[in-house]
Design goal:
With 329 residues, the protein is an alpha/beta fold. The chain folds into two domains: 219 residues, Rossmann fold (3-Layer(aba) Sandwich), CATH 3.40.50.300; 101 residues, Magnesium chelatase subunit I, C-Terminal domain (Helicase, Ruva Protein, domain 3), CATH 1.10.8.80. It has 13 helices and eleven strands. Helix 1 crosses helix 3 and helix 2 packs across helix 10.
Length: 329
């Protein structure tokens, strides 16, 4: 019992740093607390995050502000159709004076990498980034180089414009821990945004409130967040219901789902649930933590059928119905 209380007190203490981080970023990126929290959850779980939203919603500003507030090295890669893999990973440079090759590291060698408009890059570039995301290493020539630790990729994509884009393959989408939808701000929030930013010197200053060491310490606490066996079974039941909706009484969903979520989704749901609890200052995971993260974890891992498209059934509704029908422990 004393161990549980000690662990709870330690987690509550560490979570205060995380709340300071969220508050600091919110000074610049107004009205996007849900989005900021999801990025912090991605950091705690050592996962990559895909942000989807129309231009002008401060996605780039958010990621840059997050890096500044944590004293992490930051690189932004603007993805374009003519981008080469070496523009991301780096290349070998020949020195004619010494007759030797040296490695020039690309922008992927940073703690936090913003892949802006990632769906504008061709398949070769996406494959190069995939190795970095999955293996946290880069191969240049015949040498393999480890990326800085911690290492995160925050990618953005525009859901509207499809001309000149290369849709991300399912294998790469699955490497993102979360896919977060960025929506328009509310009316009052947008008024505050205009007041803060529509000036010659916009208020975009962010203080460093968390060091890299503090972030690593918070990430190490994730394993101390207790997840009960019943909650683990609930996670698996939710994910398996996307493959076999008839098992939870959703026979009408079966023709609408072409491919359900894989076991990687179960792992991601467990990790993000633990991070959600840690962010709330709790030493244990509740089913509500899982429900809160389910849409962000599953929306890019479920492939709907043509029938679902014909019915204009969004994946959000499919996930909601699964959550409503799976028994909660």
């Amino acid at each position: 019992m004393s161990d549980v209380l000690e662990r709870g007190a330690r987690i509550e203490q560490e979570s205060r740093f995380l709340q300071d981080l969220i508050t600091e970023v919110e000074k610049v990126v107004l009205g996007q607390r849900h989005l900021v929290e999801r990025l912090v959850i991605g950091l705690l779980a050592e996962g990559h995050v895909l942000l989807e939203g129309v231009p002008g919603l401060a996605k780039t500003l958010l990621v840059r502000s997050l890096a500044d507030a944590m004293d992490l090295s930051f690189q932004r890669i603007q993805f374009t159709p003519d981008l080469l893999p070496s523009d991301v990973t780096g290349t070998q440079i020949y020195n004619p004076q010494t007759g030797q090759f040296s490695v020039r590291e690309g922008p992927v060698f940073a703690h936090l990498v913003l892949a802006d408009e990632i769906n504008r890059a061709p398949a070769k570039v996406q494959s190069a980034l995939l190795e970095a995301m999955q293996e946290r290493q880069v191969t240049i020539g015949e040498e393999t180089h480890q990326l800085p630790q911690p290492f995160f990729v925050m990618a953005t994509q525009n859901p509207l414009e499809q001309q000149g884009t290369y849709p991300l393959p399912e294998a790469q989408l699955d490497r993102f821990l979360l896919k977060v939808i960025v929506d328009y701000p509310e009316h009052e929030t947008e008024c505050r945004i205009v007041d803060a930013m529509a000036r010659a010197t916009p208020r975009t200053t962010v203080r460093t409130v968390i060091t890299t060491e503090q972030l690593r310490a918070s990430m190490a606490l994730l394993d101390d967040v207790y997840i009960d066996e019943r909650v683990t079974r609930y996670i698996v039941d939710v994910v398996r219901a996307t493959r076999d909706p008839g098992a939870v009484g959703l026979d009408d969903l079966a023709p609408l789902i072409e491919v359900g979520a894989s076991p990687r989704a179960s792992i991601a749901l467990g990790l993000s649930g633990r991070a959600h609890a840690l962010l709330a200052g709790r030493a244990y995971v509740t089913p509500q933590d899982i429900k809160s993260m389910a849409h962000d974890v599953l929306r890019h891992r479920i492939i709907l059928s043509y029938e679902a498209e014909a019915r204009e059934m969004p994946v959000e509704d499919v996930i909601t119905r699964v959550l409503d029908n799976v028994e909660v422990p």
